[in-house]
Amino acid sequence: MHHTTYVRAGSTDDAVARMADGGQLLAGGMTLIPTMKQRLASPETLVDLAGCGLAGIEDEGDSIRIGAMTRHADVAGSDLVQTAVPALAALAGGIGDRQVRNRGTIGGSVANNDPSACYPAAVLGLGGTVHTNKRDIAADDFFTGMFETALDEDEMITAVSFPKTGKAAYVKFPNPASRYAMVGVFVASGADGTRLAVTGAGSDGVFRHADMEAALDASFSADSLDGIAVDADEMISDIHASGDYRAHLVREIAKRAVAAC
């Protein structure tokens, strides 16, 4: 059996210091713990972030700021989120099952950048900002590839900010067993135009679809997406769905998201 040391960090600085000594950060553990059980990860030290004071939701005027350790259930049930960004509350309420929503955290999901996770689509679709112990990172610069982000080795997420918007929606086609998105689309339309982010489908992780955004800027309607091509060669192809099927789903789920705005 692999030996792992468990420590509970008392602050962000404490957690970062323990990272420098080889510690692996533990937020909700929804990905890390199953990975350890399968012997696919074997960290020498687990650094629990529960004591770092990183949970909570704040109104910042034009945006809302959600602490990294805020659970999915708390985002879904927040009156502030439901009022300021209803689509974000709905997204959080559809993640996994009740057990996952009561343990999983927004910071852990965003940092892990699973190609089928829901939160990356919201961060990218809303043009959010990822706050770390070192800097603020715009959504367009944060997600760099499948399971990859712009985070440095000595950097951890402390919060995520989302601009308030009245016209936004998230629709996903979930895997019936895991409830991960086989395709999920977050669309938002505001003063700066339309943003449309896709998760669960891209072979390089979450991405924006420029052609769909341009079509919706010209006419914000589901019919505007008819005929827009989605490259099947850039889609994930696995036992659940082929690249061709996912390419078809991207356009159809995007139309549903637009109709839901």
Helix content: 25-40%
Count up the domains.
3
Oligomer: single chain
What gyration radius follows from the Cα positions, in whole Å? Answer: 18 Å
Distance between the termini: 51 Å
Q: Indicate the overall shape.
A: globular
Query: How many helix segments?
Result: 11
- Strand-residue fraction? 25-35%
- Provide mean pLDDT, rounded: 95
The CATH topology of the largest domain, please? Answer: Uridine Diphospho-n-acetylenolpyruvylglucosamine Reductase, domain 3
Main sheet: strands, sense, barrel: 5 strands, antiparallel
CATH class of the largest domain: Alpha Beta
Based on helices, strands and strand pairing, what is the structural class? Answer: alpha+beta
Give the neighbour order of strands across the main sheet: 4-5-10-6-7
Query: What is the ordering of alpha helices and beta strands?
Result: EHEHEEEHHHHHHEEHEEEEEEEHH
CATH architecture heading of the largest domain: 2-Layer Sandwich
Stretches where pLDDT is under 50 for at least 5 consecutive residues are none
Using DSSP, what is the number of strands? 14
Structure commentary:
This protein has 261 residues and is an alpha+beta fold. It folds into 3 domains: 5-48, 2-Layer Sandwich (Uridine Diphospho-n-acetylenolpyruvylglucosamine Reductase, domain 2); 57-163, Uridine Diphospho-n-acetylenolpyruvylglucosamine Reductase, domain 3, CATH 3.30.465; 167-260, CO dehydrogenase flavoprotein, C-terminal domain (Enolase-like, domain 1, 2-Layer Sandwich). The protein is built from 11 helices and 14 strands. The strands form 4 sheets. The chain has a 5-stranded antiparallel β-sheet. A 4-stranded antiparallel β-sheet has the order 11-12-13-14, sandwiched between helices. A 3-stranded parallel β-sheet has the order 1-3-2, covered by helices on one side. The protein is globular, with a radius of gyration of 18 Å. The mean pLDDT is 95.
